[in-house]
Amino acid sequence: MQHRRQAPPLPATLFGGAQLFFVAATVTRQTVHEAEQLARQVDASRLPMQVVRTARLHQPPADVRVRWMQVHRAPDRVPRLLECLRATADDEPATMIFCNSIDACRFVQHTLAEHGWDSAACHGGLPPPRRRLEFERFVSGTTSRMVCTDVAARGLDLRFLRRVICFDAPRSLSEYLHRIGRLRDGGECVVLLRPAARDQALAESVRQQRRVGERARQVATR
Fold this sequence. Notes:
alpha/beta; Rossmann fold; 2 domains; 6-stranded parallel β-sheet; 13% strand; disordered C terminus
């Protein structure tokens, strides 16, 4: 919404009767307030605008299975990650493994290589040309695993993706929604949770959001 204050208004004649939709993956109260304010300011006779709301906003895909795997210590995440991968070694579903830092990505990728598993990488520590090559390896199926930071959590439409593993738990509910949102057609999301208060608070926030989503779906089907 800040771009509205930086750019001049577009003339309605540019739209030629077309419908425009302004959408976002996550929406704050401030964003909703500014959208409603903008809708009131626009000349409805020239460019009618309305804000549409849904009770299912900020909900993960309903057809994605979510598994929370508790670990007692941070180092315990490695055997749990390997356990997840070994369980599907025969099928090798396309998997994104999310980490919270470049160093963690490099550590996970090195660990996978030590156990004989190839993987692509996508994070800010790679120059853009290399990042594109790594991404193409994943998309083409050359490797079924991509280790990444949240640079890969937005804007990627990967219909072939079947699993998301959060080696590092997301730092916020918004990050969680972006990560799990990569799963377009079902699949599984596995989150490795440490006893840390932040990780446990995230899990509780997700459970609350899921309960809200379930109530919304029940109302919608009545």
